[in-house]
Fold Hemolin.
Amino acid sequence: MLGRIYPLAVLLVFAGVLTKASCTEKGSLTFVIDDTLSMKDDINQIKSSIIKTLSVFNETSSVSDIVVVTFNNTDAQLVAKNSDEVDTALKDIKALSKNDPRNQVLSMEGLILALENSNRGSHIYVFTDASAKDHQKARIVKELCQEKQSQIYFMITGSNTKHYQDGSMATYNDIAETCSGLVYVVNKLEASKVFRLISNIVIGEEIVVYQKNFPVLLSKYNYIQFNVDQLTKDLTISMTGKNLNRVFNKDLDKSRDNIETDNFKVYNLMDVKPGKHFFKVKSESETSVVITGRSDFFFKHGFSELMPKSLNDTFLQPIADANVHLSVLVSDVGKSVEIIKAQILGMHGKPITPDLNLTNISKDFYVTPPFVTPKQRFRVVVNGRLKGSKDCCMMRFAKIPVTPLNLRDNRVLKVVIADGKEISVEYNTSLKLTCKVTAFPKPKISWLNKQGQTIDSKSSMVKYPYDYISYLEVSMLKDDQYTCSATNDIGLKSTSIAVKVKDTFTVVNTPSRAEFKYGKPGTLKCDIKSSLPINIRWYHLNEMSGIKKQVLDSKDYSISADKTELKIIKMDVDLDGKYVCQAYLVNDKKTQMELSKIVEITGLVAPKVQTHANKIGIKGAPVVLECNVTGIPMPTIKWQFRGKSGSKFEPLGETGSVLRISNVEAKHEGQYKCVAENTKAKNENITTLFIQEKPKIKGVGALTIKLGLPVDIVCRVVEGFPKPNITWFVNNSGKKFKPIAGTLDVMHIAKAEHKHTGRYKCVAQNEAGKAEHITSLTVELRPVIVTKSKSVEIIEGDAAIKIPCKVIGGPQPAITWKINDTIIKANGKYSFSEGSLIIQNPNKTEIGNYTCEAKNKLGSTNAVIEVTFEKRPSTFGTKHFVYLLYGENKNIECKAYRSKSQTLKWFDNEGELNKKSIQITKASVSNDGNYTCHVSDKQGHTETHTYIVNVGGPPKLLADNPLNDWRGEIQEIQSNCDSDAKPQATVQWKYNGKVIPDSDVQDLGVIYKWGHYTCNVSNPHGFVLKEFDVNSSVCLIPKNLKDAGYMPLPLNEDGTWANWKTSKYFFVVDAGEIITLSCPNSTDAPNSFKIFPTKTEIKANCSKEDKFVVDAGMYKVSELQCNNKYYFTNNAERIRFWFASGSFSSYGLVCFYFFLFIFYYYL
């Protein structure tokens, strides 16, 4: 259920206004909506109009927020904080249902709630179509509108009122007059026009220029005279009455945005000049006229029995027939008005008291002498004139007429202490108690303590004339009781409050023990609080002696500036125990409190020693024994030693984690114990030191042996412990040593060969280290030339040419080169490298036979190499295949060409090409051919490469032959993947997803028949993938089944020779054709079908492919085999069989061939 009140403050559209609300004291725009059933249609129209009205709000609006109230449901309220919530709140306002017991017009209750929840100076609009059922509460409404200085307007829709403003509506007229409003009687169609009035009213601050109610004067006009001064503008004339009629003078004819209905009219006058103005109006009922304007000159007022200091010391409703001062606070933005006097006017507009002088008390604040308050409702008027002018008067009316209070019976005393019956306070704090008193006549209020002593206090009136308040302010040092007493002519009333002073110290419930990790900081807090100044001391208690030692800032402790925290900088074993924090009052050291905490150290770890169980020391070298120790706190370390012959450990002087022996000897061998100890525990570990000695070798440096004789290479180890292991290595080619078999100290070669020549290395190694020795072995051998090349080709332009001559022999043979028996010597033209002859810049003159002669002390040999000269290489050298697409660009570089120091030549089929590379642009078949490059360098290395270029394109399939009704021509399957390609494409076949080996491709259509085929046609430029299915609507009987000897004879349905179509490999039987299959008996044994063992002849109906229907079952041809091969004992019997089977001549030529095959098969 939606609540009754909707204070819609803090709207987004009002953000700018609300930021100034506290200083401008702007009122609310309040809507009081009748939510009884008869208002159902009106409510929807009102809600829509409220939303539209929001658009006129800005920072200059005279209201700060919106409040929406319904007549019924006073049980809840909702605050809307943005424009969306305004919509939501309004949407939830609905008329009550017909049977709802709350369906009554409680308009006064709605108004009271609206006034209580609206700001001072509000504009309140009531929407109803019926008289007030709770009109007896009208008095409260009028008192509240006086207190809140708020204007109330009634919008009466005519649907529920048979006569215009019947007697029951008088309540609304009386409230409107009292609260400076109007009663608008409208039909439902005119209701929206009221909101135009609302928009005008809230745009800015209004002043009242004229206001009067006229009694009923049938057919007679009421004459209205009003005065406009220089500071008044934007005049609006509003009038209400039944069937209104008005007559304006010419000076008032200019108006805009007028609203005219039968019962109310509103005119916004334009260009009204200062001075007196007149018009007349009449109606068939009481007539109300209100003229408002806008001005920067206006005032607020109040009344007081005593001379006030400011408007805050006044009240708005004086007591009737009492002496009061009238106070006014003037707002004059231009400071252009001189204040002259005040007047008290009756509701008829005439003075009812003598004029009142206004005395300026402070800036813009004026007070009159005392005067007797009238008993009837009256208006307050302030008169002034423009400064420097002698004219009078500029009149400003108070917005709301003043309704004096007629005091009822004396009020019974009521005394309440706002703080309750009991309260607790901090020690030595100031306590302020509030006593609220309701009484009349004015009471005397006093405060007493528990001892009955009167205590000074301050009292004042809160709401005239009944509500008072008294304040008592005392400083609390101990518990007490205070009584507020009020007395007047009626009697005496009092009430008391007990005040309890809290303890001086407050202790937070903190743990009594704390654990701090060794070596880490820890903080203790003194959680003693007090509202009074205190000091704190810290102590460390020796639990053995009970002595407290004060803790001060030191290397171990740090105390915070306010002494509430003690920090142990680095926790150690001697810093645990009990700590006491002592707090005492600065002004009373005897008033103190102690708080203790036990501090325990954590993180202590027993020593743990880690050493190597064994350690090897090398004789003559230093050795280091390490003792890795952990523990908290860090343990101390001691070393002990027990030699090989000792019985106990002896202490050593070393205390570090490392024990160093600079020059190890045999006496140092033994056990070394590392002992670690801290406050937690003790731990030790033993390392055994073993002394070892590096190997040392003696041997010869070189050996020479004759070919074929045995030889021993000796590696004698003279020192080393433990016993070294021996390994052997050999270097025959002058490069790296390679391991060879052998672990003894002698390498024995039973029969020396040339391959044994080389350097032999023996390595002796133990745990202490290793030693090695090299012996060079030479096997004596006559020179042998092992080069196989008999000729060398010079290509014109070579940088150099190398003529190889590899020689073996022992000792190493000397090599001599000759040409035409002339010894060649090294010079700029010739040079030698590992026996080979290198000729720089060779030409035709180098053609000839070159002799390589090798010689050592055992003999000599020679070889002749022919050198020829060619324009281009006679061989292809290394071949490279280059496949190019039609139109492709390609740059072919010679792989042998690696440096600019090399010479490079290119050749094609025609001859030499003067190029560094072969550049092919937009390749075509004209570029096909061989491109040879030849490279040489100054070292005589030559290299030839040939690039075989083939220009072409990816394969393209030549035809697409659907094989949905294949008749056995196997070429039809293979041709489905024929292609046009360069270079020629290869085909990879798959049958039903499995690869067909290349060797089986020839059997396509024979072994592989019906099913799904995939062919991948590819060459270096690309591939084409094709898939197709092979199906047959006819039946194909193969001629060359694997088990042909067991196959039955195929015959016509009537058992005669069939005249079927045939291909190379198959007989073709049409679908649905019935054939006879026969397993004929032989003379030696009966025959039958394997799957029909009782039958020698069956009828088969062709289904498709190789499938026949036999006795309602589907069978492949290969499944219909005979149990026995059919054969005949002699040729004559065979011939009789064939001719007895039917007409041979009708079988045709193909059958004749088949007959011959069978005939010759059985010969």
